[in-house]
Amino acid sequence: MRSLFRRARRRSLMPRLLAKRASRRAPSVVGVCGVCGVKFAASRERQADAARVLRVHESICPGGQRSGRVAMPFE
Ligand SMILES: [Zn+2]
Residue ranges of the alpha helices (H) in the chain? Predict the structure, then answer.
């Protein structure tokens, strides 16, 4: 009886948790390094910080080919 109840509760909680995570934590790309092509992404709250990190990275970028990669400094 008890395990049945637990399972039902978990099932009703799951979609809500997943939806919340997707909408709050989905990072969006703030920019691309002009040297190596790596993308920088961050959640909405950290966009400004990520853009700053991207500028710093660009100034010290070791080069190479990293297009297609995504860096998320705050995740
Ligand atoms: Zn770079």
Answer: 2-25, 47-60
Q: How many CB atoms lie within 10 A of CB 66?
A: 16
Span from the CA of 24 to the centroid of ligand 1 (angstroms): 27
Neighbouring residues of the ion ligand 1, judged by CB less than 5 Å: 33, 35-36, 61
User: Could you tell me the pTM of the whole model?
Assistant: 0.65
Q: Which of 44, 69, 45 is nearest to 57 (CA)?
A: 69
In a domain, 5, yes or no: no
pLDDT(11) > 90:
no
Q: What total of structural domains would you count in the chain?
A: 1
